[in-house]
# Entry
Amino acid sequence: MSFKIINKKDSILKKTKKLTEVLYKKNTSRYILGINDLTDELLVYFEKNQLDIEGIIDDFTTEKIYKGYPIVKMLDIPNKNSFIISCVVDGKVVQICDKLVNSGFKNFITYFHLRLFDPTLKQIHHCENNIYDIQNNMQKYYWLYSILQDYKSKETLENIIDFRYNFNIDSLRNFKYDLSHQYFEDFVKLDSYEVFVDCGGWLGDTTLKFIEKCPFYERVYFFEPIKEYFEKARKNLSFYDNIFFFNKGTYSMDQNLKFTKNNSSSCISNFGEETVEVVKLDNVINHKISYIKMDVEGAEYNSLIGAERLIETYKPKLAICVYHNQEDFWRVPELILHYNPDYKVFLRHYTQGLLETVMYFV
# Structure
């Protein structure tokens, strides 16, 4: 099996240009599908380009108005020739496109493709560096492909790179939205008396799943920097013993950093509205550990730098999210294999969108 990164953007852009001819026609009925920060970006974009919209499509909210625009259900749109731009990018991109087709709509594109057509639009979070990094580090991606341990890992990398480099939505059809095995794949062998380190614990969901899988664990180290989520997690986990709670994030050194709070994807940001304490794992944990999970919204690489002693000494199993920063696909395995070259590397993706690509080291 061979792997070659192919530039398909020209052909995808050609199809997008043909579709957008309808978008800019004077009498077109236009809708935005989904409500998030990209919705706000499109509202500004439409106003700047003097394009009216009929409303916002959201089949799940009970709200009727968003920023002065009516919220409608997809099935309630009378004109099947309407032009729809989907702002769904995180987890169910394919599902939404298929739903539009099955509902009779032909004139629609995703925000991915509109942004490819018009780069003045705001870039999607987690896509800021995709094209540049892949274009300039192809040999590193070929190296990564060569060290992946199984066919599914290699296939995952092929499809994810096709999506993240070309914004080829069809490559996402090879995945399902299924989080049931995330962090607990069959090749992640759990023994009795595991010591689990949950970095980016949020509400405690992963720790709860770990306890279910490994009821005879020895202890858990739980890290969550946002006070609100930390308190909810501590309540959710209050029935279990030997959990050491830290209302802190993880990083390469102990310090205070600005954080932007955004539901489950709060992250370090120079423009953040909150200040949180982050710590170096090597300075906090003085005990043998067996499994580290990291979903720390872009701070994974720095957090791994802060866990060098732990990884070199104990060779714990690792599950590291790599979708936040494009370069993490290759620089994370480079770093981990520098610490310990005996790791075997696996890759899995758990959505039909940008989120939840996890690299495992076992």
